[in-house]
Amino acid sequence: MTRLRDAWRTHVPLPTSVVLIVAAIYVALKLVRPVIPGSVILLYMGFVIAGATIHVTLDDARIRRFLDFFVEVSGREPRAIRAQRWALLAVIPLVLGWWVYDALRPKYAPPVEIFQRHPTVGEEVLKRVTVPAWAADPAKWRAEDVAVGKRLYEANCAVCHGEKLDGQGPAAEGFRYPIRPANFTDAGTIAQLTLPYVYWRLTVGGIQNQFNSAMPKWTASDAEPDASTLHSNDLTSDEAWKVILYIYRGSGFEPRRE
Amino acid sequence: MAADSANRSRWRGTLRAACLVASLFCTAAWAQGSDPGDYPTIAGINSRLAVWIAAQLHLMFAAFVLAVPMFAVFIEFLGWRAEKTDRVAARRHDWLAHEMASLLPVAYSLTAITGALLGFLLFTAYPKFMHHLTGVFGPTFIVYPLFFVAETLCLYFWYYGWHRWQGDKKWFHLLLGLALNVFGTIVMFIADAWATYMMTPAGVTEQGALVSLYDAVWNPGWMPLNIHRLVANVTFGALLCSAYAAYRLLLSDDARERALYDWMGYTGNLIALFTMLFLPFAGYYFGFELFAFSATYGVTLMGGVLSWLFIIQAIVIAVLFIGAAYYSWLGLLRIPGSEAQQRWSPVFNVLLIAGFAVWATPHTMAASIEESTGGFHPVLGALGVMAPKMIAVTLVLVVLYASYLLYRRAGRVPTVGWARTGTTVEWGLVGLMAVTIAALGIFGYFAPAHIRIKTSIWQIYVLIGGIAATFFLDQALLRGAKTVAAVRWGTMPRRGQYVLVLLAVVIVWLMGLMGYARSGARLNWHVFGIMEDTSPNAGLPSLGEAALVITLITAIFFALLAVAFAVAGMARGTDERALVELSPQGEPQ
Questions:
Q1: Of B315, B345, B376, Cβ closest to residue A183
Q2: How far is CA B42 from CA B28, B128, B129, in A?
């Protein structure tokens, strides 16, 4: 092991090792499928480069080893070492140059979207949502209400959110950007939310407003249950609550308590 | 000495003049811009922005003047206790406490100036809101200045009476320092009541009429914020003191002076690191209470409009922890014969970087249209939720603590008979702590939300329990240990000093960021759910705008702090004999 390490140190100087490791991590991140967004790769690479800088500067001898590689030209070094020096002196500026060019060149794609998973809503709006007594306590949810919710869900929601509530409905792939239909089995969605919020989200939707998601507005007033907003089969208030009961029961989560 | 005194007077004069000019400007502005509405404009400036800057600056100086006396008095106490056993160490601790305290008088003036500016802005630009606040908190508005005056008196007598009350009278000096801390803490607690009432109001009717002042003060967010600020302030003050030590060390050509300031920087960083261990949990506690008060806070802060601040926060906290750890690894270079410990630094480096990469992974990712996988990445998305982040951050804390244990061991050989067994048990416990934390986190990941919260709390218990057990074991192990290589104070590489300055900048920026998050989370409310903010400027800025304002606040703060540093530096001359005697030597302390 020690011999192998010594051989590596002899033939691959510290700067080459550092560049190889940084490049290998970058390539590995780039190879992950589905692709990792550039913003996240940038974040990771920031950490990697910080780690590499710390590693090189942990002691003075190592800093010298790193820098001397670039400045010491004795003419007696093996050809492989010299080749590495010139390769790095060429590659590092080229990479940096490409990075700057890539950042500045005109692009025609829409800008990177910073999406809010749970749109912010005012307290005063949520206060107006009254949770019916029969829906308020998960321990008292009736099986028949959940069953009605399941039927409504499968008829209206499953096409996007999936029969298994996993966001993998047949139409889900059509909504890749900026956000696909929510996966209710993921701990980061309904498990984090209170009943009034989920009701608000369901009945306000996203397509008509700034929330920038394809979620339709599922609502109809109790007075006019057949009145249409976007869809012809909108849900009444009771129906909306039953759907909510089902997505919680079906996903195994409970609503966050207020 | 006379020159020093003249310098001090000159600086105090300048500050008074600045205060006067600011008051005149404000009065003139008020005269021009006041109108009878709920939100009069002051000389056409953006009131919200002005209050934001003034409040944050005031908070930062207040944090500094509250925190520094805490550890300065503690260090002074350590020196007093060592008086009989090690006079040099006692004097060195006394010097350090005084050195830290020397930053306080000017910082105190700046706290008062920024506080006065904030009060003026609030009363003139938000009269309706302040009318409500004084209606609820009237009695505290009377008590507050009294405690402030008491704190001020204690500070000035404590600082300027330092050399007078030495020897037999030291106990009195320490008592003054203790009173200073008590009054300072009360002042902060009172101000916290106002700030948290705005977030989690209690003790009033829905129309805002006072029912119980006690409940309004002891509102749900009050004690969590008190605790969070107490811990964070100590980290903040310690890192600023470290930056001061770095500044002095970098300026100094004298090896003995460098040794002292190196030791001061090390002590400050150690205090900061120790308190930072508890900071995430104090933050969680505060967040937990906010969420319990209103789910809207949970949504706004964690999933909604302010959620991206926490990704930025995660990165900034990572810089803070990695920087502090890097400084401590560089510190091993001061200790000849610490090669065995130095070997671990690269390993810890990789662990910290990996841990923070997980910690900063967003759950919902910013993506271009080509990259988008619908906001949630099927591979990395799993790292974006609470359970893996808790594993990552708690293990990072284990690594930091392990760095500290190694540092203590550098250059020392235990002499107790059970050294080998003790060391094995000690590191076995550290390993067990890490494994248990990871196991709890993995279990919590697959468990329902209400169980996951409990596993997170257990992770914290395991961490604190593990640290406590190994800390005392380490103390026993190293009792009477043989020092084989003395610490060469003052030989720390210069880059270590720049790291200390960087850490100070980072903590100030971070405090600005979180101050904005805390205040911004109220959204369109002065007092959440009770009194709405209907002013023309009542909107949240974009992330970019917010970052610019926070950066501006940081720049102003450091410009003002530079004045405090310069005054503290001018206020003393180098006492040659003292330096020779006080230069620290020996083991890590």
A1: B376
A2: 9, 15, 16
